[in-house]
Structure formats: structure tokens, C-alpha cells
Amino acid sequence: MHNPTTVDAYIAGFPEEIAEGLEQIRGAIHQAAPEAKEAIKYGIPTFVLNGNLVHFAAFKKHFGLYPTPSGTSAFKEEIAPYKGTKGSIHFPLNKPLPLDLITQIVTFRIQENAEQAIKRKKVK
Prior knowledge:
The protein is of the alpha+beta class. The chain is 47% helix and 24% strand. A hairpin with a 3-residue loop joins strand 2 and strand 3 (52-58).
């Protein structure tokens, strides 16, 4: 993969079956956050709304969703079946994507970012 500059270019760099999964994740995020803007940050697709909302990516054995540590801790029980780290969730390539869960996480992050934006305005 050569440094994509758009989400379309990032997704186009993968085999069809992986690209389909990436498009499903993208669609779930769009559904939850239609006003969010797409970008490439840290070399991976990112949705931005009052700051970084979520990132997502594909790897050899999993799709990664990066909703920040707060986005993973708020859904600790729901994401328990998946591997991950403090700020990421790994969805296996060979299993159906939990699109409803992704939508819920994105909805949580929208609210969280909106609250942080209000706090930033009050400080100014």
C-alpha cells in the first residue's frame, strides 16, 4: 500500500473481499455520523467530527476499529469477544462484522466529541 490520500484509494488497495468489509465499516460509520468528514490520518481512514471520531483499517487477519480508549472502555462487555488493545477493537476477517455495534460505538463517540467541543468553547 502506497500512502493513500483518500479513503477510496485506501480501500482500493485491498483485495475485493477485504475491500467489501472496509466498505461495510465505512457505511456503518456514515450511517451513524452522516455529517462527519472522511480523511486519511496516521495512514488509515478516519472520520472527523469535532475532532477525530474513529479510525479503521484492514490487516492480515483482522479489521481494526480505533474509537479511542474511551470508546472501547464504554463498550467493554460488548467488545469482550474480540481481541484488541486499550483503544482498538480487532474484528476477524473470517467472521461477520458487528455493524450494529460499530454504529453504537460511533454514536457514543459523536456525543463524546460534541461534549468536549462545548467544554473547549467555554474555556475560551
